[in-house]
Every structure is written in C-alpha cells, then in structure tokens.
Amino acid sequence: MGKIAVDTDRLVKYAPGPGATAAQVLARGDGWLVDEVVCTYGPSDMPFEEQHDNVAVAIVLAGSFQYRTSTGHALMTPGSLLLGNPGQPFICSHEHGRGDRCLSFRFAPGMFENLAAAAGAQRRPNFTQPRIPPLKALSPLLARAWAGIAEPIGVSWEELGVEIASEAMRLSRGISNRPTEGPPGAAARVTRTIRLIERHPETALTLEVLSREARLSPYHFLRTFQMLTGVTPHQYLLRVRLRNAALRLASCTSSILDVALDCGFGDLSSFNRAFRAEFGVNPRRYRGDGRIGRPAEPEPKPF
User: Fold this and answer.
1) In this structure, how many other beta carbons lie within 10 angstroms of the beta carbon of residue 15?
2) Contact, 45 vs 22, CB < 8 A?
3) May I ask the CATH architecture of the domain 8-172?
4) Contact at 8 Å (CB) between 75 and 137?
C-alpha cells in the first residue's frame, strides 16, 4: 500500500510575517499517517502554495481559514473536513482571523483505492469537492477524534482514520459543487460569528445576536452563513455544543445535568433529546459505552 514519508524540514513552515505551522505525528502505519497541525498564521501573513503528496482528509478542530484548490474554494470551520487529492496544489489563508488547529489523516493512494473499492466505489476515488461541512453524519466520528486528542491513550487512530476516510468518500458523493465563497466581504462577516461561537458556545447566541455581530440583517446572515458553511447557524451552534458535551462525558465525572447546563442547554430533557438525535444514544449510554477509541453501540429500538 506504500509508506508516507514525513519530511522533518517541513514540519515547521515559515512565510513572511509572524505565523508558522507546526505538525506533530500522532500515529502512523503502512500507507497511513495522522498528525495534529497547529497554525498561527493571520491576516498579515502572505499565503503560499502547497501540494498534497497523498490523499488528505483533515478535521478542523479550531479556528477558521480559507482553502483554495482545483476542486473549489471553501471556508473551513470547526467540524468540517478538508479534502485533498494526491498531487493537488492548494492554498490556505487566514484573511479574517488568526490561527487554526487540524487533525490530518493522510493515506497513500494505493491504500485509499483499496478503501474505496471496499466501500463500493466503481472508479478512481478522487474528491471533487474541497470540503465536507459539519454534518450530523460526522458527529460521532468527530466526537471520538476530539476525545482522542484530549486523551490519546486508548484511541485507535488507524481504525478512526479508516472510518473517517470511508465516511468522507460516502458523503462527498452527495455534495454539490455549488459556489461557497459568497459576495465580497461575506467570509469576513461569517468568520466573526464562527469565532464568537468558538469562544462562547454556551451563551445565548440567537440569530439576532449573530447577525448583529456579522452586521447583516437576520435574513441575509442566515443565507450567507449557510452558503459559506454548509449548515445553518442553529445547526452549527448546536453541533459545537453537542461535541463539547460528548467530550465532557467521555473525559470527566461531572453529572449529566452539569454537562448539559455548562454546554449551553437550558434543561436536561432538551439536552437528552438533542444528544440522542445527534449520536444515536442518550448521554448516559454514551458515557458508559462510548469511551474514547470505540463508538457507542446503538440503543435497541422499543417494541
């Protein structure tokens, strides 16, 4: 399947300005590698062209940035997947905010083709989109990835990488190539609200509050946000809160009620309903069965 070489000279990259990118390899095997990438570039740093040496599927953990490649342009936000094909040039820029953090899975072409064939792909598995938005279908896998970063002991990065790659292939087939850049200035306005949500997801961030932060009417903000991120503001905020709750449930002993309230849910019943809808199990079952590194088993359906 081939090995993925890591050029240690490129683990820290510098360009004009104060920003840098540092990558730490978390795990590797025959034909695959996963590393955590922390970037401190900002609006004053000049973007430069890079190239994907292998198949890339990267989870955006924090921050936001613009991703430009031959398959399109996209605003990358926490919970979305960056997609890259071998040999594909790309540019990442931070025009409206400083820094990001990603979990990057890279696959040798031979291994990825084997995964695609096992998943039923009939042709060469190249991605035709630059990203997958933070969709509900990704939530269980992303919660495991976040938990694995927090407490790497017990997580199988190889298994998680295979699942992430398979889900990325499946979901990418159903995503259109519609424009994702929006009108001039739209990315800056939406980025402000994304970073506000990142800082204070537990607060009452209504459509009115977020549209005011973006300096748009609620109607135009709703349309612009969905165009650029692929989900509505409510869906985005809800998934941030639920991912935070899933991480808390997997890594601390706080009561479920405390987790719900700390993560921005007004009461336990609404938290239970939202959590079950997103992850397929209730919070108590997730805490018991969905520990770091292995997914929770679905709850049996009532008769």
Assistant:
1) 13
2) no
3) Sandwich (2.60)
4) no
Burial of 120 (0-12, 13-18, 19+ CB in 10 A): exposed
Give the pairing type, strands 89-93 and 49-51. Answer: antiparallel
Condensed to tens digits (0 to 9), the pLDDT of residues 109-146 reads 999 988 887 766 656 678 999 999 999 999 999 998 98
Q: What is the pLDDT of residues 267-301, one digit of tens each?
A: 999 999 999 999 999 999 998 865 444 444 444 34
Residue with tokens 């790659």, as numbered in its chain? 165
C-alpha of 49 from chain center: 22
Residues recorded for the chain: 303
Confidence check: pLDDT of 233 > 70 = yes
Per CATH, 8-172 and 186-289 having the same topology is answered no
Which fold would CATH assign to domain 186-289? Arc Repressor Mutant, subunit A (1.10.10)
User: What distance in Å separates the CA atoms of residue 270 and residue 285, rounded to the nearest whole number?
Assistant: 16
Alpha-carbon torsion, ordered 156, 161, 162, 168, to 10 deg: 150
CA distances from 279 to 5, 104, 243, 247, 276 (A): 36, 23, 10, 12, 5
